[in-house]
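User: Fold this; tokens only.

Assistant: Input:
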Amino acid sequence: MKIKNLKILIIIGPPYSGKGTQCEILKNILGYEHISTGDRIRKEKENNTELGQTMIDYEDNGQLVPDLLMKNILIKILEENNQKEGLILDGYPRTKNQVDTFIELHKEIDITIENIVSIYVPEEELMNRVKIRAETSNRKDDKDINIIYRRIDIFESETRPAIEYIKTKFNVIEVNGLGSIQNVTDSILKEVNK
């Protein structure tokens, strides 16, 4: 795998916290490519790739894709975007094992982790946001209350410990996800530009 001096900004947070929205805004400001691992999984499924077929059961049931599959997707993403100025990773890492995988890749290839931003939003607000998103998105998983609760539960049991773990390895910027979209963007940029 040949990766040359690729800069990485990682945005993490619970489902429906506004990660994707913030990544799209930051993409335009920083000139980086926004990579949503969730979108990538959906793309692999839509294109009926071997990888996509393997993931269907996990994604459709609101479960996390196994770490080894996620590693393969991440390597593919890094290789495809090798010539870009930088990447904003949205949705990775989500487990402690994925943090370890990312650290291994960080040692093996020429990438620079510029910042890791963790967006915090209380669960009550997450539920309000998913109701709004369900009205505008065409995703069946946004309309299934069982999948919604499962995603939030998985975040609490798997991803929150991963965030605490990644804090022992890298500096993590905590940002309050409440308030207007612009306020959250301003908070992220203020910290990132320090």
